[in-house]
């Protein structure tokens, strides 16, 4: 009851003498502290906004310019060539504006204009420098004199302490490739997959497209590239993600795992508390723009725009298209546990809750024995099924009353937390443990993650954690950056007591988490069950295998003087050929974040060079020397294609945008309808120097694929390619 009294700022009673108003000093104190914190936050954002706005200059440089101009005036030198006098004549004369005041003000205005012009000049020069990509095509360890000069100039103009968004205005726009280059690269990419007759047919279709309507479509695309910040990204988000009406669970959302071999604590509430607190610290740095921008070579800046919607973001379903709702200053999160939803406040007295306080709140949820309300337990499956039924149900059943208030609490939360009632993680003694862990993160039970939130944090009973991320707002490296910060903060900064609890005192006066209330009618429960069955069908069809390859890793591959990425991609080509006896179009994602608002581009890894190498590996008549020569040729080709994709000269995003323009203009193009599909999805992470993890997925419904079998083929392919560099280890 004491907690309830503290939750309100005042109480009143009606007496014969009037109303007796009693204010709570403690709550008023918290309100005051909240206001102070809010104003401090605004002040810091304003300051960092100014620093970002004038970058690569600094506010202090304005004072230097003003002093310099004033000094020249006192020395009777006019560096403005008469502009100060012209400004002076336009200023009114009054008792408050003396001639001397006019002169000083005119000098300050001129100095400010000169300073702003200098900033724009520096940005233009830096943008021109960042448009140079010759450095990326140079051999590893070899740098030309021109690139060295370029690096020095970029470093000089980049300033000393850039904030997260300091470089945004200086990043170049993504260039539109020429039609000829894109078509030639496309034809080159499909050549190893077609026989001579099929290739001639494709060549004919491509040449017809090149004559008409390609020039017309290209003109419109060029116009968009001049007008928009990025000619791809907005259409990519809208047409690839938001307009898709199929379930986003499995098909779009992706997951991120915990550290494989480390569990800092086995206490679920404690691990959840530290992780949530670390995320709030990261969010504070993000909102203030205080994170250090990612830079290639430690110098070349990457675009940071995707970070903006990491927190306080939800994908809202629509009938024809969804939209991404992003808010600011959200002060709560929503927790799902055993079919119940709880709202947890993240602030107390104007500050973040400490880990020990969050642990108390989460433990209260774990100890809560209340039962789910009708329809509540599987409610999140609406976000796992088809988009249209969810959009219609949202409009019909969640637009008023307690349902609207509860749904609003979820959609406006900082993020979503699931306190899972299962135990997962990697167990070296259980070969299936990694597979089950990944599948749980990817889809769970199909009703215990809110797939529309920017991300759902999942904490298991044994203290293992993971994240399920909605894909439309950002790509995996963005959430990966946050995840690295959170794991490092959890293990090395926050820590735990000897008993596994969070460090710090426990504040038992905190008001407990609030149960969200629902009034879900039977008709809506039928829709929920329908969404669940669709989602369950998708989840049950996921054939997943996690392969930990620890025979060798990045360090040994580099000693072979080849790129680890190229090495792995060629191993995948060899493994796939052994698995299915044929080649297929292979798509590897690369980033285009050296351009403003850049996201991804596709590298087509199946090339004439890679297929020649694979065939040689399967031909007993070829020698090790011949295979090694073909490997190096294929690896060099792959690296060149990856670099082209990174520098805006890829194939698929250009073709995608041409296709969108053709649809808007109602132009039918046989060339733009060409589509290919393959049977496996493979992601891999190079962990440290001696471990590579492969995450392989396919469908049980496909008779041609088997993820475990493909994993074994990948392992053998890696070993066989390694043997080329040391024939004594050869296993053929």
TrEMBL record:
Top EC class, one word: transferase
Occurrences of domain Choline/carnitine acyltransferase (ranges): 174-672, 674-716
SUPFAM superfamilies membership: CoA-dependent acyltransferases
EC number in record: 2.3.1.21
Function: Catalyzes the transfer of the acyl group of long-chain fatty acid-CoA conjugates onto carnitine, an essential step for the mitochondrial uptake of long-chain fatty acids and their subsequent beta-oxidation in the mitochondrion.
Family: Belongs to the carnitine/choline acetyltransferase family.
The protein, known as: Carnitine O-palmitoyltransferase 1, muscle isoform
Organism name: Cyprinus carpio
Taxonomic lineage of the native organism: Eukaryota, Metazoa, Chordata, Craniata, Vertebrata
